[in-house]
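User: Please predict the structure of the protein below. I'd like the answer in structure-token form so I can feed it into my own downstream comparison script.

Assistant: Understood. Taking the following sequence of 177 residues as input:
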Amino acid sequence: MSRIALVLLGILLLGGCSASIDGSSYTSQTPALSLEQFFDGKVKAWGIVQNRSGDVVQRFTVDIQGRMDGDTLILDETFHYEVGDGPDKRVWRITPTGNGEYDGAAGDILGTAKGVSYGNAFNFRYEMDLPVDDTTYQVAFDDWFWAFEDGTLMNRSYVKKFGLVMAEVTIFMQQQP
């Protein structure tokens, strides 16, 4: 009996290490977020990646050039690293599928990314092979975006392995003239 209690306690404690956000709480918040409008043009982003201990392991900027190709939003991203390293480029193709849902694809993303719009917020979930030092890990991204006034967006990503948050990414984005 005590083993069962210990296992249940361990599951509860591990569950506390995982992020879970209820997107429906953002449906009536403003300003409304339209990916197609926000990313149509130039966007500058500033971000950090923190490991499980909270240490900053990457600090970077991203130049994003967005455009619409029919119904598909194309995001051409170029990364510059001040701390750490990572991909130099990524090109997203994001297409609405109806009812506030989106499919996304990029060269280093495994399968199809799934997105859901929640008024002021947007959630994007996908998997990728993430190189770290001499090893590559298959991880899941739980990516959240929130709109602010004045053409600003905040992005918070939870990088998970086995359902546990292994790293967190924080990015601020601003539309450029």
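That's the full token string. The domain at 2-175 is CATH 2.40.128.20 (Lipocalin).
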